[in-house]
Every structure is written in structure tokens, then in C-alpha cells.
């Protein structure tokens, strides 16, 4: 399913520790409705093979603290529906590998409890605009035997446009499709891990997936991930 020896040498490290570990979420009724809709996908089209998934996210920042690089957010997504296999982290307004650094963005590739690799965006500025809205898309894709994860279509006042090759992984995979993906992993595991009082909302605005016949599907049911955390 995931051949780390092909492209990377894995370094062992705690999965997500200390200040970088978002709290697990209690799903609201809107979340259950959203997940119920997703559960109908294989029931209504059992023959389809999903080959690409996009999560569209919005982070609404109230009053950031640039000196403390606050708030800090960690996003989690898995193509296999759990954190026991391969999954990806996207850190906003901080970096945690190889050591903590404030500001900017970083993507990390994990295989269970092994940190495989990380890529850091060249932007190192912390969020510093009041009432700032940060938008981005997390895309997971299977293409020509490669599993690809990337951030794209990112935009914010502090960072401008962001995403692309600097926030991307691509490596050989034994996966045949992405049918094991579960949006609950992203919803429950993602969140504000520092200074949640400075965040008004963190919202999954849209889920978009593509099958092997290039048919595109969408679910538009905004889910606000609870940001009411202690600073």
C-alpha cells in the first residue's frame, strides 16, 4: 500500500505531540449530516473508483499575535481512512520539523508513527492581519501509480497566494483507488492547536471527488471545526 523505501528514508518520531496535537472533535449535527451524505456515495455508485479528492478549507482569524505566531493550525488528511497507514499533515503559521519554527507553512508525510518527510514553504511570515480569511485546497490524487498530495489555490492577506510544488508530495503507491478515504478523519483530527481564542472559525466548505471516468462530484455542506480552545 505504501512503499517508503522507494522514495524516502523514514525517521521515527511521535505522531503529533505537545502543542502540535489538535484536540479530537465531538461532531456537531451538521457534521453527521455531511458524513451521512458521504456514506451514500458507495451505496449509490458501488462500481466507481475514486482517484482524486479535494477538501476546500477556510480559516477565519480574529486578531492574530504575530510575536507569538498565534494562532497555529494543523490539518490532517488520510487516503486510507485512518492514521495507521499513510497520511498527511499541513501546518499553518508554524513548522514542527526538524524543529519548531514560527510562521509559514509546512506539509508532512507520515506512515503510522513514522515521520517520512516534510516540505516547508518559503514564506516564513506569521499571520498578522486582523480579520484575515485564509483559504486553501488540500488535494489527494492517484495518478500513474503515484500518490500525490498537495496544497493549492491558497490565499491570504499575510501570505498572498500559496501552494504548488513547495507544498507537495508524490511517491509510488500500491493503492488502486481512494475509496477508503473518510472525511471524518480530517474533521476529527484537524484543528487549532495553539491560541484557539484567536480563531473565529475553521471550516470545511466543500468536498470534491473525481472517479476513474473523470466524473466529478461535490458535497457543499460547510462544517465548522470547533476552535474554542485555550490559548
List key phrases describing it:
231 residues, mainly beta, 8-stranded antiparallel sheet, 14 strands, disordered C terminus
Radius of gyration: 17 Å
Low-confidence segments: 1-30, 227-231
Query: Number of helical segments?
Result: 3
Determine the oligomeric state from the structure: single chain
Distance between the termini: 39 Å
**Helix fraction?**
10-25%
Shape: globular
Category by helix and strand content: mainly beta
Description of the structure:
By secondary structure, this protein is mostly beta strands. It has one domain. 12% of the residues lie in helices and 44% in strands. It has 3 helices and 14 strands. The chain has helices at residues 4-7, 29-44, 183-189; strands spanning 11-12, 50-61, 72-77, 86-95, 101-111, 114-120, 133-143, 146-156, 160-162, 168-172, 191-194, 199-211, 216-219, 223-225. The strands form 2 sheets. Strands 2, 7, 8, 9, 10, 12, 13 and 14 form an 8-stranded antiparallel beta sheet that branches. A 6-stranded antiparallel beta sheet has the order 1-6-5-4-3-11. A hairpin with a 3-residue loop joins strand 8 and strand 9 (160-162). It is globular, with a radius of gyration of 17 Å. 37% of the residues are buried. Residues 1-30 and 227-231 have low confidence and may be disordered.
Amino acid at each position: 500500500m505504501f512503499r517508503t523505501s522507494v522514495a524516502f528514508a523514514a525517521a521515527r518520531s511521535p505522531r503529533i505531540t505537545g502543542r502540535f496535537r489538535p484536540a479530537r472533535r465531538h461532531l456537531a449535527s451538521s457534521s453527521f449530516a455531511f458524513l451521512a451524505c458521504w456514506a451514500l456515495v458507495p451505496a449509490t455508485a458501488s462500481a466507481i473508483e475514486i482517484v482524486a479528492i479535494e477538501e476546500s478549507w477556510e480559516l477565519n482569524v480574529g486578531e492574530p499575535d504575530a510575536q507569538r505566531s498565534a494562532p497555529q493550525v494543523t490539518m490532517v488528511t488520510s487516503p486510507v481512512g485512518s492514521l495507521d497507514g499513510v497520511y498527511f499533515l499541513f501546518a499553518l503559521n508554524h513548522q514542527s520539523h526538524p524543529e519548531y519554527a514560527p510562521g509559514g507553512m509546512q506539509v508532512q508525510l507520515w506512515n503510522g508513527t513514522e515521520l517520512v518527510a516534510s516540505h516547508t514553504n518559503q514564506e516564513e511570515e506569521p499571520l498578522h492581519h486582523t480579520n484575515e480569511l485564509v483559504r486553501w485546497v488540500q488535494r489527494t490524487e492517484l495518478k500513474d501509480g503515484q500518490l500525490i498530495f498537495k496544497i493549492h489555490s491558497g490565499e491570504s492577506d499575510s501570505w498572498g497566494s500559496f501552494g504548488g510544488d513547495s507544498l507537495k508530495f508524490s511517491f509510488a503507491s500500491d493503492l488502486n483507488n481512494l475509496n477508503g478515504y473518510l472525511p471524518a478523519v480530517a474533521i476529527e483530527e484537524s484543528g487549532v492547536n495553539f491560541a484557539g481564542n484567536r480563531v473565529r472559525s475553521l471550516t470545511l466548505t466543500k468536498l470534491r471527488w473525481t472517479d476513474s471516468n473523470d466524473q466529478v462530484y461535490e458535497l457543499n455542506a460547510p462544517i465548522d471545526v470547533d476552535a474554542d480552545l485555550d490559548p
